[in-house]
Please model this.
Amino acid sequence: MDILIGWYIEPLPTDRILEYTAQALHKFRPFWLEQLDITTLTLLSHFIEDADNYAQVTRIDCDRTIIDSLSRSTKMNCKTTKISLFPLPIKLLLSIGERPVRSQSRQSPLSLSLSVPSPLFFERCPMISLRRRTFFPSNVLIVGFRRFSIQLR
Amino acid sequence: MLNENEPRFSDWILERLNDVRKNDAQRQLLIGAFRHSIQNEQQMLCLGEHIGHISHVLKKTLESVVHAPLMITLTDTIIDLSRIYPHVFQEIFVVGDRNKNEDFSSPDEFID
Model:
């Protein structure tokens, strides 16, 4: 999965690669669901944070004070990731949230803390298409967060 | 069926893959042929005892891909096999480095 995601966010992906890898990520849905708590939501959190950081650095590239305040790893990520990073968490959320998933014993909601994407995130990713349907990222994230009862911070 | 009896077609393919490991075009042809040979695997389950080794080779091949067409053919093959042998591919699915050193509280339950 790391390799597939790597192809998705490579610096200069072609439309064909983007479309194919997005579909492939979707086809692995059973595995995303199987590791929902251990892998999927954690990865989702990282993607949102990476995309947010990237949006901030590319938007405020003149403000050295803010850039200097970011960690070195964040700055390195921002330099190496590309615009395709933005739709990735949305597509992942669409994949795992397509149908309701029920817990084995429903006693308490899923408790996972995720950063709220900044407005810059949505500016960079105004809408995405997947399997011939178009989505607004803000709607998908809101529905996804509600469905999974994710706590926002 | 190509993989039903000895010698298996898959064995020959995996050996040839090693011979042409620096040529993505030839590896794509071989992986495509292997994918063709498993069309009836869901019914036959000829590769059940060897799927661990096969998945390992496919994973190693995927790690060394340079050209996108080979990546696509390989991923399609892995998706096909993962539907037949999901328990085996659960092990190679795991996303590695991003999970290390994370301190999220473990979710207890999940509701709609």
